[in-house]
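Hi all, a correction to my earlier message: I attached the wrong file for Biotin carboxyl carrier protein of acetyl-CoA carboxylase. Here's the right sequence:
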Amino acid sequence: MSGLLVDADAIRALAEILAETGLTEIEVAEKDSRIRVARQPAPVQAVAAAPVAVAPVAAAPAATPAAAAPADLSRHPGAVASPMVGVAYLTPDPSSPPFVTEGQSVSAGQTLMLIEAMKTFNQIKAPKAGTLKSLLVGSGDPVEFGQPLAIIE
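and the right structure:
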């Protein structure tokens, strides 16, 4: 156990990032040191969401198709899924226009947005040419791995 140094300020900073972005896990590694902070909000959501979801479904059957829509988008053949957990940005910087807009034709390899992960901005490129039918995230939105970001048809 000797030699183990814990940086409480770094852990607090990572916990604040989790709270601000809505992420569930973050890990930082430097040389031989690694800090991982995770939270598990699922039990709280399941307890609160289950009773609320049951009542509207019974009262309004039309709510069922709306609830199924997000799952359908992930299976859409033109869905562009997030390759990582991070924060989406639709512009290269706050004063610039967006990379793309809905209804615009895009070519394969064209940048659609950026995802910031661990202070690194990663370009999310169109996997195929087509028309950008829908952007499913806004600038500054936290995104999860596999989450649909856009639909290209």
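Sorry for the mix-up. The mean pLDDT is 78.
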